[in-house]
């Protein structure tokens, strides 16, 4: 893939609304669908580990479709030299931003000494950011928690932000929950620790030069706009976008970015058909794409029939775009 010259102000503007990196969910097929729904929203990859790229040579993990721009690569790791090398690989592939994961609480990530455990090592995070920024021209950003375990967020988060800002990080996304490294599963860490939105807003007041996005528990476009109107620079949404993508993304360009008009999920399905055809012709399987489309019509008459038809056809031998088109027929058109 030929790298494109990244427009940093454009990427920073796109960060006004972004789709969170979600393991096993935000793969290239999911991102292609989301891009059809919103031309402006910043999309993130699933986390890719620096060791997998640098030591394992798993460069296929960097594959994406050019239509996905603006797109950010999220990296996991904790060795500054290795992170710099992985960031350079991502830039060479054409990513618009490289993001350092300091928020994932899974045991597998902790064992690699990265993710949320890095909240306990702000100096190391700063070293990684400095090394990455020295290796690439695209923005290097950080996604973090407000703290972990028994840390006091009001104390540790300002120190964390000051250290990464001191080495030139200008954008950070804060998941407004603590992460408990022991005793809670990754799923529980997304729900059980209480949200502290006010702390994130106070961090924006304390660090006015930092572009701060809020993540965690945002369930609608109205919720996102309320945080933007209150002074935050961006909002990152995860599960709500995945499960009901049209509710968030179809109006995002108009309402969040002041550009374009609302998109229709029906049009997105039609636009996905050639993509599905290409995927199947290259040896892919239908469900690899359609599993991300199940929530497109959430709340609409016919949505349950759409999900059932799409799930059934995805497992049929020889199923392809025509079966998806037939499933679309289950959706009752909106009144004019």
Major sheet size, sense and barrel closure: 8 strands, parallel, barrel
* SSE sequence, one letter per element: HEHEEHEHEHHEHEHHEHEHHHHHHH
Write down the CATH topology of the largest domain.
Answer: TIM Barrel
CATH architecture of the largest domain: Alpha-Beta Barrel
Query: Ranges with pLDDT <50 over ≥5 residues?
Result: none
Q: In order across it, which strands form the biggest sheet?
A: 1-2-4-5-6-7-8-9
Q: How much helix, percentage-wise, in residues?
A: 40-55%
- Category from helices, strands and their pairing: alpha/beta
Q: Helix segment count?
A: 17
Based on DSSP secondary structure assignment, what is the total number of beta strands?
9
Total individual domains = 2
Tell me the name of the CATH homologous superfamily of the largest domain.
Aldolase class I
The shape, in one word, is: globular
Radius of gyration (CA) equals 20 Å
Strand composition percent: 5-15%
Whole-number mean pLDDT:
94
Task: Tell me the span between the first and last alpha carbons.
Answer: 43 Å
Write a structural description.
- The protein is an alpha/beta fold and 336 residues long.
- The protein has 2 domains: 8-255, TIM Barrel (Alpha-Beta Barrel); 265-328, Up-down Bundle (Four Helix Bundle (Hemerythrin (Met), subunit A)), CATH 1.20.120.1460.
- Helix content is 44%, strand content 14%.
- It contains 17 helices and 9 strands.
- It has helices at residues 8-14, 28-37, 50-54, 80-93, 107-111, 122-135, 153-166, 186-189, 197-206, 221-229, 239-243, 245-249, 252-255, 265-281, 286-290, 303-314, 321-328; strands at 17-19, 42-44, 48-49, 71-76, 97-102, 139-148, 171-179, 211-215, 234-237.
- The protein has an 8-stranded parallel β-barrel with strand order 1-2-4-5-6-7-8-9, surrounded by 7 helices.
- Strand 8 (211-215), helix 10 and strand 9 form a beta-alpha-beta unit.
- Helix 6 (122-135) packs parallel to helix 7.
- The longest helix is centred in the last third of the chain and has 17 residues, at 265-281.
- The protein starts with 7 loop residues before the first helix and ends in an 8-residue tail after the last helix.
- The model has no long low-confidence stretch (mean pLDDT 94).
